[in-house]
Amino acid sequence: MMYSLWLGLGLSVMLLASFSAVSGAPNLVCFYDSQGFQRQGLAQFTMTDMELALQFCTHIIYGYAGVNADNSELQSINKRLDFEQRHLAQFTALKDRYPHIKFLLSVGGDADQNEGNQYIKLLESGQQGHRRFIESARDVVRRFNFDGLDLALQLPRNKPRKVHGDVGSAWKSFKKFFTGDYIVDEDSETHKGQLTALIKDLSSAFKANNLLLSLTVLPNVNSSWYYDAPAIEPSLDFINLGTFDFLTPQRNPEEADFSAPLYEAFGQNRLGHYNVNYQLEHWLLQRVPAHKLNIGIAAYGRAWKLSTGSGDSGMPVVAAAEGAAPAGRQSKQEGMLNWAEICQLMPNPSNANAKGADAPVRRVLDPTKRYGSYAFRAADSNGEHGLWISYDDPDSASSKASYVRSKNLGGVAFFDLTQDDFRGQCTTDRFPMLRAIKYRLL
């Protein structure tokens, strides 16, 4: 029986790969947060789970390596996992069974907490520091048999600001932005030039070794400040746009709103750049070829705690939120719930009579497919257990994949495999979001 299972899986892999090659289907770049391997219980992501996911991916990106602030070299940020437990080697060993998939190593990705500004230090380290980073990155990539490197550099983020309210307050927000009150890096123009030089030199070194180089633009990093798109595009094989987390309970604790809308959500004076389409158009207007751009889709949602002052309608923008909702039992991170956790909060026989924090949420669908769904539970009379979640589900993820197809883009970057319902806790199919994206891209 086990032999039949693996034979069927192998045939599925070959068929999907063949179909993709013939149809010229867009890429599906799958990010893998290696911390998922160390989680406990239902949240633990095993190599068996990985093998099931790989039948849908064209690229798989291992997260994450970091940068040594003292010498600018690429380094492991979890030596016990990467080296002692040989997880890096186990990961790339899968290349033998999945030769049609490209395996990359990502550096940064908000996982590198060893230093506060090591990425700015890297940019400022000059030719000598750049050379040390390039040589160390190339050595690690080649030693562990990766096909390339992904730069998910942790650059300074836009300052969060309250964007809703009356017209006057919205105008003040824009005015502050353009007059410099929200500048987070006075040397951003210099850093842009330094980053351009680093990417060009890194690309030259990698191409000489037949290695790939990609760029991941993390959420809320101002692309205009740091990326000279026309200059760096020829050096990159593809670019992943982190088009989610536009608003989060950490950055916007008092107001709950869509965290990853496809298009601008009009009304209530929202800022016009907090959406997928705006971010994409920025890169297209910089003459970056559409086929090099991948749209990022998150397998998790952002969750706010609601108060009695938030009301009971749930319609965004929701005022009087009280920051991040409590961490989920699996994801264990305040203000974030993975898709399996969100799905299990929807009304179902197991929670029909549940109360308090286990009570079901009300799901509100988006028939326009423009903004995304949300779910909420109004606070009770004691001001407790209020919850508001913005998220992508398999349906909205599929709609974004259709958007990718309609724009003739490079594909989708999926963040990440360990946040999908990879155990099938809500459906009979494991990885429902990954599947929905893949089948719409075919």
TrEMBL record:
<keyword id="KW-0964">Secreted</keyword>
<dbReference type="InterPro" id="IPR015520">
    <property type="entry name" value="IDGF"/>
</dbReference>
<dbReference type="GO" id="GO:0005975">
    <property type="term" value="P:carbohydrate metabolic process"/>
</dbReference>
<keyword id="KW-0732">Signal</keyword>
<protein>
    <submittedName>
        <fullName>Chitinase-like protein Idgf3</fullName>
    </submittedName>
</protein>
<keyword id="KW-0325">Glycoprotein</keyword>
<feature type="domain" description="GH18">
    <location>
        <begin position="26"/>
        <end position="442"/>
    </location>
</feature>
<dbReference type="GO" id="GO:0006032">
    <property type="term" value="P:chitin catabolic process"/>
</dbReference>
<comment type="similarity">
    <text>Belongs to the glycosyl hydrolase 18 family. IDGF subfamily.</text>
</comment>
<dbReference type="InterPro" id="IPR050314">
    <property type="entry name" value="Glycosyl_Hydrlase_18"/>
</dbReference>
<feature type="signal peptide">
    <location>
        <begin position="1"/>
        <end position="24"/>
    </location>
</feature>
<dbReference type="InterPro" id="IPR001223">
    <property type="entry name" value="Glyco_hydro18_cat"/>
</dbReference>
<dbReference type="GO" id="GO:0005576">
    <property type="term" value="C:extracellular region"/>
</dbReference>
<dbReference type="InterPro" id="IPR017853">
    <property type="entry name" value="GH"/>
</dbReference>
<dbReference type="GO" id="GO:0008061">
    <property type="term" value="F:chitin binding"/>
</dbReference>
<dbReference type="InterPro" id="IPR011583">
    <property type="entry name" value="Chitinase_II/V-like_cat"/>
</dbReference>
<keyword id="KW-1015">Disulfide bond</keyword>
<dbReference type="InterPro" id="IPR029070">
    <property type="entry name" value="Chitinase_insertion_sf"/>
</dbReference>
<dbReference type="GO" id="GO:0004568">
    <property type="term" value="F:chitinase activity"/>
</dbReference>
<dbReference type="Pfam" id="PF00704">
    <property type="entry name" value="Glyco_hydro_18"/>
</dbReference>
<keyword id="KW-0217">Developmental protein</keyword>
